[in-house]
Design a protein that fits this description.
With about 180 residues, this protein is α+β, with helices and mostly antiparallel strands. The chain has a domain of about 100 residues: Jelly Rolls. About 45% of the residues lie in helices and about 25% in strands. Helix 3 packs across helix 4. This is CRP-like cAMP-binding protein.
Length: about 180
């Protein structure tokens, strides 16, 4: 197989989703894996006091599970996954993609690298929330995702950074 990535993309189902459309809601089960051709999505939870906390933002060329707990443990999701923009996604269900992983070692290796990338991303975010102040988290986000400020609501970015929208506005008004 010359190009496992393109083979994998061609084996999935392409589908368009509208802005604000949910890929999964809390309490539902999903066995889906997604790749973003175009658009931005978010994973979020609702806290006991009713606030939304964004735990992941995905954009073009990202792979993600609608709910990693639901996919791997067949349990109800505790998160929501929602399109923040109109999205063009490639979708695989668990049986189909796991068959591909077992048949093609190159694709299985790709899957392992994606899981490692996901673990590293989650670890880095967790550490930044514990060790960095709001300004440092904001600057790091800008280094990696500056274009998102023109694409998604700022209160969602604030939620992802674990700061208030007012703090985000104050940080954005500073000249760095």
């Amino acid at each position: 197989m010359n190009d496992p990535f393109n083979f994998l993309l061609k084996s999935g189902t392409s589908k368009n989703f509208e802005k604000k459309e949910f890929l999964i809601k809390q309490g539902e089960k999903s066995n889906k894996v997604f790749f973003i051709k175009e658009g931005v999505t978010r994973h979020y939870v609702i806290t006991p006091d009713g606030h939304e906390k964004t735990i992941r933002i995905s954009k073009e060329h990202d792979f993600f599970y609608s709910s990693i707990i639901s996919y791997f443990k067949n349990e109800s999701s505790y998160i929501f996954c929602q399109c923040l923009t109109d999205c063009k996604l490639v979708i695989w269900n668990r049986n189909h993609i796991e068959d591909l992983f077992s048949q093609f070692p190159e694709i299985a290796s790709f899957k392992n690298q994606q899981l490692i990338n996901f673990i590293l991303e989650k670890h880095e975010k967790e550490i930044s929330l514990l060790t960095q102040n709001a300004e440092d988290r904001y600057l790091e986000f800008c280094d990696k995702n500056l274009e998102l400020f023109n694409r998604i609501p700022h209160h969602i970015i604030a939620s992802y950074l674990d700061i208030t929208p007012e703090t985000l506005s104050r940080l954005r008004s500073k000249k760095y």
